[in-house]
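Problem 12. The chain below contains 196 residues. Write out its predicted structure in token notation.
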Amino acid sequence: MSILKNSLKGILTFNAAIGAIALMTVAAQAGPGDKGHGHGPAHGEAQETRGSHGGAQMNHDMPGGMPGDMANVSRTVVIIAKDNKFNLKKIQVKDGETVRFVIKNKGTLVHEMTIGTPEMQKAHQSEMMKMMDAGHLMADKVMGKMDHSHGNSALVEPGKTGEVIWMFHKGATLEFGCNVPGHYDDGMKGNFVIGG
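Solution.
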């Protein structure tokens, strides 16, 4: 009976992870003329997909916006991640504005900043739990060559800095949150207020 329960739990976790990937990624890379901004390797480096969760970057429009282009950035917002809170709880943005978020991890744990609807955040939490269960994500470090950052998120180890560039538009309730297991539920999240 215990084996059956564990198998069912694994299937449900896998299905939740696949659902999160489907919500957050559409293509493995931007096509010609796309201005999507992937946040895996630095510009000019090869994309390492082994150990990633899906190996794809999100370079498409989604509810509330899309990855932005550095050339269109109107301002930079610094988000400090500590154990387990962000320095900001609310960020005001304008419809059509492109903002560069610099995420500085000043805690002792791995933290993430993901932009998404509350439903996307919840689906992403299941994916993060699967990564932790598989040993790819530890409390204080990312194992191996796993690339977890996407156009709408950055996974940042202690003492390091990540970046997300996002173009906002009205039409959805957006949050920023850390979906490392337990962090979001502990209050590590905030809201975007999208104005005209």
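Discussion. The chain has two helices and ten strands. Students who got a different answer should revisit the alignment rule from Section 12.3.
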